[in-house]
Design a protein that fits this description.
single chain; 346 residues; alpha+beta; Beta-lactamase; six-stranded antiparallel beta sheet; two-stranded antiparallel sheet; 11 helices
Length: 346
């Protein structure tokens, strides 16, 4: 993929976006990069290929790959009740779980029957402390102050859910008996050399010492706390570079050709980008558009101070990562990211 007929500096100025990083994929390799602007307004630190942005909900793409890798290893199964594997907490049984149990496939495709409580899953407030997944799922934190439960029969409805991915995080920690960030490091970051990717809060709290980008509002001003952190790694906690995310996309593309570096089979790579449970638009950790060899997969991140997008055409071996340090207050495809996406030539 490549950019066509777009003046990035001018469009960034138009939308008050201070920093932008784009990684392009063509023929199963990184084909180009664009790094424009600054990681902090009125600061001379330029965006470069090592600049780290909040990926927000693109974290779910990483979680999907990691979960499928554990299925590959036999530690999890896609179509069995996750309560059979959860140790430190169980999804409460109720009238909605009489006929169907929640599976990993349900959770990854947002069809578990779990709905996010209103005004939940905000950014970290140091005065409120960091929630554990157990406390969060039990509704004992200000980030989610009601217990998580099934609110409709699994597979009956689609509900985009951060809470569902918190269940996946606890599930991964329970079956591996390791912290989520350690599993990600061992299974993904180290073998793929994603050296600028971070999930562990102590690492993130050292942001001023690294190439971390600050968040900005729709007017281009710094947001409060400069580095908004979401303490739910599997759902929204990944900080990374466009280059590292492109590496993860390439891993999926290569897995479809039986050339995975992390041991992900062609079978499970294909399952990830296959419509799930009668919903044409959702795969496992990604969203879908089109079909067959032209299928487009995507994941979007939108949080305080940041917006980003991953888009790829796995069978065509093309894709792009677009990361910005601005929250425009509008859907990604209606702002700068949308203009960039539309300018790309397949």
């Amino acid at each position: 993929m490549r950019l066509k007929n777009i003046n990035l500096e001018e469009r960034m100025k138009h939308y008050h976006v201070n920093g932008l990083s784009i990684a392009l994929i063509e023929n199963s390799q990184i084909s180009g990069m664009e790094n424009v602007g600054f990681i902090e307004v009125e600061n001379n630190r330029h965006v470069n290929q090592d600049s780290i942005f909040s990926a927000c909900s693109i974290s779910k793409f990483l979680t999907g790959i990691m979960a499928l890798r554990l299925v590959e290893e036999g530690l999890l199964k896609l179509d069995e009740s996750v309560n059979e594997y959860l140790l430190t907490w169980k999804i409460p049984e109720n009238e909605f779980s009489k006929n169907k149990k929640v599976t990993l496939k349900n959770l990854l495709s947002h069809q578990s029957g779990i709905k996010d409580p209103e005004s939940s899953f905000s950014e970290l407030d140091s005065e409120k402390g960091t929630p554990s997944m157990l406390e969060l799922l039990e509704g004992k934190t200000p980030y989610c102050n009601v217990p998580i439960k099934i609110q409709c029969e699994p597979e009956s409805e689609f509900h985009y859910s951060d809470a569902g991915y918190c269940v996946i995080q606890l599930l991964i920690e329970d079956v591996t008996r390791k912290p989520y960030h350690q599993v990600a490091t061992e299974y993904l970051f180290n073998p793929l050399e994603m050296d600028n990717s971070f999930l562990l809060l102590p690492d993130l709290l050292e942001m001023d010492k690294k190439e971390f980008s600050c968040g900005h509002d729709k007017y281009g001003n710094l947001v409060d706390r400069k580095y908004p952190i979401y303490p739910y790694p599997a759902a929204a906690g990944l900080w990374t570079t466009s280059l590292d995310l492109a590496t993860l996309v390439l891993e999926l593309i290569n897995a479809l050709k039986d050339k995975s570096k992390i041991g992900l089979s062609k079978h499970f790579a294909q399952e990830m980008i296959t419509p799930q449970i009668g919903k044409s638009w959702t795969g496992l950790g990604v969203f879908l558009e089109g079909a067959d060899k032209d299928i487009e997969i995507s994941s979007m991140g939108w949080g305080v101070g940041f917006q980003c997008m991953m888009v790829a055409y796995p069978h065509l071996e093309k894709g792009a990562i677009i990361m910005t340090n601005g929250d425009l207050g509008m859907h990604q495809l209606k702002g700068l990211i949308g203009e960039i996406y539309q300018s790309m030539m397949l």
